[in-house]
């Protein structure tokens, strides 16, 4: 008989449960770093989550499915549960129990809703296709790293291959660098240029410090820079977790005298090579515009990413279970107004 286990996530989380999580994630073709204990500890340090829980379903001491849920503030002194990149595990019996267990802990924690963003075909009972806030873009561009380099290059657009060669001929150099205050300042300065140019927002410098410390401590990647004549003109943060590599953040100089060297393209290529060395099997550019949405804020970055691959993946739609409907409607209205302002009144 299946039995649930609920644990609040802390820095001294039981090692044997971590091992169970690792074993189950390792069985997947796509490994969700967001469904790991270490990731949640990092998020807590950044204060982006109020608390996190592991909800696992066991049968005869074997973990069949689990969900790591984040309790996040959603405004007006209310909280929601978010399960990003999960649940994990597709055993039908255990998923039914998992669904009921999530409802129980949600009642106890007095959250407004539970939202899940699975990366597989999981559908939980009573959950509806909808969302409060998507954390994972439903379309992304990926590269199959099991292919050789020549095949990967062949699947790029001619302009993508050409831009990589431009950077190489211009003697652009790419390297992974350790986290220091100097490199953090350089990254954040170039990121600020990119945000102003593309009209995006980003996390604080302190968030990136904690994030990069986590990646270095876990040997999961970190900060890469592209420089020419000792000047850094593009940077990126890349994550390498089991079979999955992620292009997490990127930034490039707005100086047109430097942009012509196409450093961002070589930066990506070197990260792809590093992912292959580490044994990753998939490189995820982590989000592109919905092909059906010509007004998406991601149109520009999508053009860049699709020069480097022709492989588009669509993820499972977000699902939500609303527990306190009137409060949710008020909060959803507030969220819709915010989205409209961001799109049409920048």
> What best-fitting shape do the alpha-carbon axes yield?
globular
Bin the helical content. 25-40%
According to CATH, the fold-level topology of the largest domain is Aminopeptidase
- Main-sheet strand order equals 1-2-3-4-5-14-6
Structural class: alpha+beta
CATH level-four homologous superfamily name of the largest domain: Gcn5-related N-acetyltransferase (GNAT)
Number of strands: 14
Number of helical regions = 11
> How many domain units?
2
CATH architecture of the largest domain: 3-Layer(aba) Sandwich
Poorly predicted sequence stretches spanning 5 or more consecutive residues:
none
Kindly provide the radius of gyration, computed on alpha-carbon positions and rounded to a whole number of angstroms.
21 Å
CATH structural class of the largest domain: Alpha Beta
- Give the integer mean of the pLDDT values: 94
* Secondary-structure element pattern, one letter each: EHHEEEHEEEHHEHHEEEHHEHEEH
Main beta sheet: 7 strands, mixed
Gap between N and C termini: 55 Å
Protein traits:
346 residues; alpha+beta; Aminopeptidase; seven-stranded mixed beta sheet; 39% helix; globular
Q: Any overview of this molecule?
A:
The protein is globular. It is built from eleven helices and 14 strands. Helices cover 39% and strands 27% of the residues. It has a seven-stranded mixed beta sheet with strand order 1-2-3-4-5-14-6, sandwiched between helices. The protein has a seven-stranded mixed beta sheet with strand order 8-9-10-11-12-7-13. It has helices at residues 15-26, 37-46, 92-109, 149-154, 158-169, 181-198, 205-218, 256-259, 263-277, 299-305, 325-344, and strands at residues 3-8, 51-59, 62-75, 78-84, 113-117, 128-129, 139-144, 173-177, 221-228, 231-241, 244-252, 282-284, 311-314, 319-322. With 346 residues, the protein is α+β, with helices and mostly antiparallel strands. The protein folds into two domains: 3-135 and 316-344, 3-Layer(aba) Sandwich (Aminopeptidase), CATH 3.40.630.30; 139-314, Aminopeptidase (3-Layer(aba) Sandwich), CATH 3.40.630.30.
